[in-house]
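Record now logged for everyone:
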Amino acid sequence: MLVIASRTPPAAPQSAPAPRLSYLVFRLERRIRAHLDDSLARHGVTTTEYMALSELRTRDGLSSAELARIAFVTPQAMNLVIRDLERRGLIRRDPHPAGGRVLCARLTSEGVSVLQRCDGSLDDIETVMLAKVDATMRGTLREGLTLCARTLRTGAHLDTH
């Protein structure tokens, strides 16, 4: 007579945890950045330059130091970016109204033109990226990402064990 030993059935495989939102945002940022770098290069603009031009469109008269904080680069790095944009005629710098050594950057008409062409390239990237995302989800995504960025920007205390 054959005796079969009783075995405990193998445990059901545990499903992998859902990916962290911060990881998904990071992956998306890297993919967008790769496409953006390629697209902007065709217009002769770097991603940091595009960011500076975009910020100046919405907040005219920012200083190089203010732009550096927004772009998460050193003031020295942004100063080089600003000087190059000025040399190429995309921005001009005027003395700050309060005086002192601070210069306020402003878009020139050529800067606006280049920025509009770059915006078209970014529109193309977003069209592909969001092709399967409906308008309601886009609004929710925009609101959620804006809230997350604002929360971290306001200096929320992070307990990093």
Remarks:
- The domain at 38-145 is CATH 1.10.10.10 (Arc Repressor Mutant, subunit A).
